[in-house]
């Protein structure tokens, strides 16, 4: 089992910054939504960030080394999780920061694959080990993170049952879906699926499976695919699903979809803040870092 987790937190958070109906948010919450990275928005007890809860679950799952990829203006992360670039001790987790720099000529970061590539360039030890990757604005369960650590597959992703996710149907319909073979090996990822596509993409259990960017990677074999990732023609970004599919094409039967049926709290837009706060108050009423069980 590996013990390194890379957390993607360098995005522009553009959807969170959009105007929205925010009758149930305080002026402070609106200000944080407009100014902070999504994972740092204070949705927890005493105004602590969502990222606290993700780190809590990572610790429960057995991770030791956490690499947080931040943007060029991401110094606020260091106020919460350690002032040094490397090897900060946060409740027994070893936290280091990688910076996703914006290439000259661009206004926004160059996507999730670019973020991970810049991280492994700054921390080349990742290229000789297995590691997990996830978003900073999703709260993955400890069970999901542990499953990524424990799988023997060289590469893996959490294959969520779409029908078990507690999101509006209109939102779920925008999720890309995964095509798996009878052994849950990844064959393809389809964006913007139609109703007809959904019938063809059901897995052996008859479930429609989606990815929420929770991965395990073999750093050694992934590196060149990260380095050579093409730009998505519509979104003008380099994206991890593209890297994963290119890796599958070169190395078939090395990427398993680990099935899970549970909700994943998500901070994408201002409308999500109140829902995530309610979820945390219900399921994480007392975060006690001194007791990880």
Automatic annotation (TrEMBL):
<dbReference type="InterPro" id="IPR050065">
    <property type="entry name" value="GlmU-like"/>
</dbReference>
<protein>
    <submittedName>
        <fullName>Glucose-1-phosphate adenylyltransferase</fullName>
    </submittedName>
</protein>
<dbReference type="GO" id="GO:0016779">
    <property type="term" value="F:nucleotidyltransferase activity"/>
</dbReference>
<dbReference type="InterPro" id="IPR005835">
    <property type="entry name" value="NTP_transferase_dom"/>
</dbReference>
<dbReference type="InterPro" id="IPR029044">
    <property type="entry name" value="Nucleotide-diphossugar_trans"/>
</dbReference>
<keyword id="KW-0548">Nucleotidyltransferase</keyword>
<keyword id="KW-0808">Transferase</keyword>
<dbReference type="Pfam" id="PF00483">
    <property type="entry name" value="NTP_transferase"/>
</dbReference>
<feature type="domain" description="Nucleotidyl transferase">
    <location>
        <begin position="34"/>
        <end position="241"/>
    </location>
</feature>
């Amino acid at each position: 089992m590996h013990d390194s987790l890379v957390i993607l937190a360098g995005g522009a958070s553009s959807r969170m910054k959009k105007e929205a109906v925010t009758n149930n948010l305080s002026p402070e919450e609106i200000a944080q939504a407009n100014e902070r990275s999504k994972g740092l928005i204070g949705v927890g007890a005493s105004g602590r960030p969502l990222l606290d809860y993700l780190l809590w679950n990572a610790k429960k799952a057995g991770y030791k080394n956490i690499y947080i990829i931040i943007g060029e203006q991401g110094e606020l992360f260091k106020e919460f999780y350690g002032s040094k670039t490397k090897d900060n001790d946060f409740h027994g987790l070893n936290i280091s920061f990688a910076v996703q720099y914006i290439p000259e000529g661009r206004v926004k970061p160059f996507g999730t694959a670019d973020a991970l590539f810049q991280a492994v360039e700054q921390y080349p030890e990742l290229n000789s080990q297995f590691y997990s990757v996830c978003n900073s604005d999703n709260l993955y369960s400890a069970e999901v993170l542990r499953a990524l650590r424990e799988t023997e597959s060289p590469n893996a992703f959490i294959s969520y049952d779409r029908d078990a996710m507690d999101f509006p149907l209109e939102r779920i319909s925008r999720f890309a879906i995964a095509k798996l073979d009878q052994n849950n090996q990844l064959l393809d990822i389809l964006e913007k699926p139609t109703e007809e596509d959904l019938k063809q993409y059901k897995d052996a259990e008859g479930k429609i499976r989606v990815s929420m960017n929770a991965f395990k990677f073999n750093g050694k074999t992934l590196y060149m695919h990260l380095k050579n990732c093409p730009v998505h023609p519509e979104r003008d970004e380099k994206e991890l699903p593209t890297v994963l599919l290119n890796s599958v094409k070169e190395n078939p039967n090395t990427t398993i979809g680990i099935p899970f049926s549970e909700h994943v709290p998500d901070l994408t837009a201002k409308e999500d803040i109140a829902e995530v706060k309610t979820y945390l108050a219900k399921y994480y009423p007392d975060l006690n870092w001194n007791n990880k069980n």
